[in-house]
Amino acid sequence: MAPTPAVAVAAVDLGASSGRVVVGRVSSDGVELEEVHRFANEPVRLPDGLHWDLLGLFREVLVGLRAAAPHQPASVGVDSWAVDYGLLRDGRLLGAPYTYRDARTARGVAAVHARVGAGELYARNGLQHLDFNTVFQLATEGPLLEVADTALLVPDLLGHWLGGARVAERTNASTTGLLGLADGTWDRELCARLGLPDRILPDLVDPGDRLGPLLPHVADATGLDGVALVAVGSHDTASAVAGTPLSADGAAYLSLGTWGLVGVETTTPAPLEAARAANLTHERGVDGTFRVLRNVMGTWILSRLLDAWRRRGHDLDLTDLLAAAAALPDRVVADLPALDVDDPSFTAPDDMADAVATWLSVHDEPVPSEPAETVRMVCEGLAAAYARVLSDLARVTGREVPVVHVVGGGSRNALVCDLLAARAGVPVVAGPVEATALGNVLVQARALGAFGADAGLADLRSAVAASHPLRTHHPTPGTTPRTPG
Length: 485
Hints:
Layout lengths: L6 E8 L3 E10 L2 E11 L3 E3 L2 E3 L2 H15 L6 E5 L5 E5 L2 E2 L11 H9 L4 H8 L8 H5 L5 H4 L2 E4 H10 L3 E3 H4 L14 H7 L8 E3 L4 E4 L2 H7 L5 E3 L5 H7 L9 E5 L2 E8 L5 H6 L3 E4 L5 E8 L2 H12 L6 H9 L3 H5 L17 H11 L8 H27 L6 E4 L6 H11 L3 E3 L4 H13 L9 H11 L3 E3 L12
Parallel strand pairs: 1-6, 6-13, 10-11, 14-18, 18-19
Antiparallel strand pairs: 1-2, 2-3, 4-5, 7-8, 7-9, 12-13, 14-15, 15-17, 16-17, 19-20
Helix pairs in contact: 10-18, 13-16, 16-17
């Protein structure tokens, strides 16, 4: 279905290390993106833990929207990472929101499981166990929950500051652990059993819902008078999957950035017992779909390794290291240790190089002597982890995976894509890099009527495929090191 007359929208896309504002133009030729502002997202360590600088991020969002104004966007949509939130009272933010990497979440797990066991919790929400799921974070808040009248996830909080609405967009709400798997509504009985006040949970909205105009002072500050705020797949992975041109029935996706989200799109939950045994999660997607997936380590481990090496005085470039890693002789690669990239010790170490060396020593493995060898070992570990999830997905859903689409910044990592194709034995299609922004833009454009009244996800994805070149990595036999576990 070809889009009707061209429309421009502004997408606010926030990641765990950076954010940007992008202008998207949707027309009969497809969809084009123009980044108008990019900014860093650096957590701040305070005496009580690790926090996001959300006020600083909001300031940068306003700068970006002001830069978008000359392009005359008709609407604005916000997506970000999941699970983190701010607590409000009478519209006032009660402290700087914590990041999901803050260590306090472990005691939240114990508090929740003391009241509701892990098995029952999974049956209710269908979520992969992650210590930082919102339900565990909320369990650490103590008396502050009695003061708060609203909890807003990060993209909903920024949307509230932009337009005033206090809502919870459903794709992101599904990552909290408080949304019922069966009906997609807040599980108020679960809240009561956990001692969490359900009054703080706002009304749910869906991607494409209009949330009203920007607040007058925001319109004045940005020059976006009369512009609407539109709900998108506010969990960035939901937007990324909506912007992925899935090429076959049963196609899998890998949204690869700080994390690697490996999954398939379904219309119903997977068989729960098998899904829980495989540690798969059920997150809501655009148009009532489910994203059955597992959250795996992503390129975070590589970027933090680079940071650690630079602190040691080594001027290294990741692109050069990846090329050197890809060129290593087979005999060297075959002798590399099998690194379990999903080990918890790699989640938030002070020094990633030390963390890798310690893990190898504990497991009686040699520490590679060259950075290129370490990078190859990590890339092999990432590809092995993703291939294992693909195997689990096929077994649990009963559907073979014919192709894997890798999107996000990690789709530029040709080495990981090649290794994944070899391990999974199926083609790996890389791109688009900007899948999250594309999904954000396309959901807004459809809400504005750019695709007609009956447009579905296939129509949005066709617009992506028509205007964004993709690169296919074919499976070829090769020498790979041992697989962990």
